Amino acid sequence: MLIEEMHPATAELRLPKVLAALADPARLLTVRALHRAGESACTRLQQAAGLTISRSTFSHHQRVLREAGVIQVRVRGSERILSLRRDDLDACFPGLLDAVLGTAPEHIGS
Amino acid sequence: MLIEEMHPATAELRLPKVLAALADPARLLTVRALHRAGESACTRLQQAAGLTISRSTFSHHQRVLREAGVIQVRVRGSERILSLRRDDLDACFPGLLDAVLGTAPEHIGS
DNA sequence: CGTACTGTTCGATGATTATCGACGTGTTCG
DNA sequence: CGAACACGTCGATAATCATCGAACAGTACG
Fold first, then answer.
1. Does residue B92 register a pLDDT over 50?
2. Cβ-Cβ contacts under 8 Å, A30 against chain B
3. Within 16-35 of chain A, which residues have Cβ less than 7 Å from strand D?
4. Into which CATH architecture does domain A15-103 fall?
5. What is the fold of B14-103?
6. If you measure CA to CA, which chain B residue comes closest to A103?
7. Phi and psi (nearest 5°) for B93?
8. Which bases of strand C sit closer than 7 A to a protein CB?
């Protein structure tokens, strides 16, 4: 059974949903790691982000980011390659992603 | 009984907490209305933001914004005057507030 | 003092969410 | 084909959260 990967159109992006997606520490680290890596498969990205959560939890976070329009997923073989929707985010929320990516580490952690 | 109003220091501001505070539609509208008004008391601000929620709920939102470091509260007579902590936010998260305030209305609503 | 106004605090409640393990599905490779 | 790998989905659980009304506290004003 092929399940269509949900990717909201650019015009459908909503700020509260994007902010909620970025507000979770695990997802925020994921996005920042994804920015450094350019693009990456799930397991590799989870390691790059330094997340020790279970795979099912990471899958959940990946879904939240995708449904908010923050990341994009494409399939390559048995892997899912994740990448930032940089252009779409910049078009809808100019400066937001840059602000999130540019924030100093001391203002990220607890 | 004087209750100390909780205002985190600038160095204590954390991005996930700020994003979570801004992620709620009511709070997002509040912040944007506060930007337009400059500063405002609770009831007036709630009206300016077009929020039809109860006063206790608005009080809750105001607390979340304050504890995240997004807004500032000072007492004037029987009123509480709310204002944005613009300089502190700009210092910790350059461009973030501008992005949130500058987002077009069609990407705010549902 | 008593009334009106402004706003907070206190449960209570229903909704959302982060997390996990178990299982299923598609892919690659021997 | 069969094993190993990469992920997603399901159901459950515990925690967090948005919301409300009722009660409370401080201020202004007659």
1. yes
2. none
3. none
4. Orthogonal Bundle (1.10)
5. Arc Repressor Mutant, subunit A (1.10.10)
6. B93
7. -135, 70
8. 5-11, 17-22, 25-28
